[in-house]
Every structure is written in C-alpha cells, then in structure tokens.
Amino acid sequence: MSEEHSKSHVITVQVNSPDDLDRMKEFTTGILGEACWEARLGYGDELKLEIGAKKTDRLGDYGAWMPGSRGTAWKLVAGDGTLITEDYDRDEDIPDEVKEKIQAIVDQQITAFEVLYPRLGLIVTFGNGNKLMSLLGTLHPKWHG
Q1: C-alpha 14, offset from chain centre
Q2: Cα–Cα distance between 44 and 128 in angstroms, integer?
Q3: What is the DSSP letter of 9?
Q4: Do 63 and 51 form a contact (C-beta atoms < 8 A)?
Q5: In a domain, 127, yes or no
Q6: How far is CA 122 from CA 67, 70, 73, 80, 92, in A?
Q7: pLDDT of 117 higher than 70
Q8: Is 80 helix (H, G, I), strand (E, B) or coil?
C-alpha cells in the first residue's frame, strides 16, 4: 500500500441518538458539491463510488471520498421516483445490466447527503435528481425512503 493510501482515514461515528447525527454532519458536509467520477460493483453486491479529488498511486486511481455499500442493501432511484435499479442485498446476484444503469450517477455532483435515524440508512442525492438509497441490513420487505 502506498504512503498516500496508508494515510487514508476511516471515520466511525456511533449513532445511538439523534444528537449523534450532528457529529456525523461535521464529517460529511465536505462531500456536498463533489462529483462522483466512478461507480462500479465490487465483491458480490457492493456498490463502490469514487467521489471528489482524484488521487493516484501504484494501486490506481481513487477518490477523496470512497463510500461503498458492503453488507448493506441499496437501490438507485431517478428524481421522478422511477426505479433505476432494484433493491439489492448480499443474498442476490446482480445482473450485468446494473453496471450500465449505475452510470446514471457518474459525473454528477452530490447535492444532499442524508443519514436516516433511527433506521440507520443513507440517502445520497445527485445533481440530476437521482438518489442512492441504502439501509443497514436489508430494504426488504418494504422501503419507505
């Protein structure tokens, strides 16, 4: 691992009450206005995003922000509410065409970053109105986002 990659930070904020969200907001406000320049599927169902300033080392390019959905169900919804991708969780195989559909958030700036409490979910809104929705555990049987 390169010197630069080894300086990466993992920020952990335990959320036990609505007041804990204030601390999380301090860490995440920097992502607002940044563009997602890559969206790809990782191991299994994991959605990986590269956001913000592009950095390069011997392992390749990576973003200043690198959120992923590991172990968490996710779906992508258009601004008009149309489902772009289905709800995916760790027990499903994701069809190949999803790789193409997730490109709808590439080259889009992040306009909102919302942490849901007490359900511990996340909604990221992009400049074109598309929303990435993720909920700890699973989105099944019904999502109310």
Answers
A1: 18
A2: 27
A3: -
A4: yes
A5: yes
A6: 11, 13, 11, 19, 20
A7: yes
A8: coil
Number of domains in the chain: 1
Residue closest to 88 by CA, chosen among 79, 78, 103, 98: 98
Which amino acid is it at 118?
P
Cα–Cα distances in Å, from 15 out to 12, 18, 83, 141? 9, 7, 29, 24
H/E stretch holding 24 reads: helix 20-28
Residues in the chain: 145
Question: Which CATH number do you get for residue 98?
Answer: 2.30.310
**Is 142 part of a structural domain of the chain?**
no
**Tens of pLDDT, residues 78-113:** 988 888 886 665 555 667 778 788 899 999 999 998
| Model confidence pLDDT, tens digit, residues 13-55 | 667 777 777 777 777 888 999 999 999 887 767 889 999 999 9
Q: Sort residue 44 into left (φ over 0), alpha (ψ -120 to 50) or beta.
A: left
Domain-located, residue 145 = no
Q: How far is the CA of 43 from the CAs of 11, 94, 104, 109, in angstroms?
A: 22, 11, 20, 25
